């Protein structure tokens, strides 16, 4: 079953994401003050998505409902129990990309095509997921890695303990 912790990890893996919680039990995730994902106390995930993405969620999840501001569609609402972790990661990414400023979204999108061993001086041995995660966060050099803690690195979706060990060895 998918949880708030998984939503939190997915959302916070993108640059400039901030988590907000209010007294009514809503946990929201924003990028430059624009909400892209949230979860209510009754475990409904709200994702701010463009119409084609929202329509796809609505078509694949019978329990999903359209999310609108007045008459304007702005995304979807779906019970967290009805979406698996992999789907959640995908839709949170799509929501973040739709709400992030264009230059920041382009930086993250560029991470999709990052090839291990071809980004700055990052070691090839960290693998494709870690290379993409670091590139998406704008990190392309070991000097930038040195400024991050292991906890910050591990919080990036795609960077695991092995990649952190390899990066620290390369810095040594």
TrEMBL record:
Top-level taxon of the source organism: Bacteria
Listed name of the protein: Helix-hairpin-helix domain-containing protein
């Amino acid at each position: 079953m998918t949880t708030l912790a998984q939503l939190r990890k997915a959302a916070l893996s993108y640059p400039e994401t901030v988590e907000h919680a209010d007294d009514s039990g809503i946990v929201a995730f924003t990028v430059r003050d624009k909400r892209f994902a949230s979860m209510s106390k009754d475990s409904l995930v709200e994702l701010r998505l463009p119409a084609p993405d929202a329509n796809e969620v609505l078509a694949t999840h019978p329990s999903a409902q359209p999310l609108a501001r007045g008459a304007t569609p702005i995304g979807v609402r779906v019970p967290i129990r009805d979406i698996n972790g992999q789907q959640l990661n995908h839709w949170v990414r799509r929501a973040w990309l739709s709400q992030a400023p264009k230059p920041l979204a382009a930086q993250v999108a560029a991470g999709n095509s990052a090839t291990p061993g071809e980004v700055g001086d990052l070691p090839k041995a960290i693998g494709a997921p870690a290379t993409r995660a670091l590139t998406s966060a704008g990190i392309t050099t070991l000097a930038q890695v040195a400024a991050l803690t292991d906890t910050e690195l591990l919080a990036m979706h795609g960077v695991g303990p092995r990649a952190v060990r390899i990066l620290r060895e390369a810095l040594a």
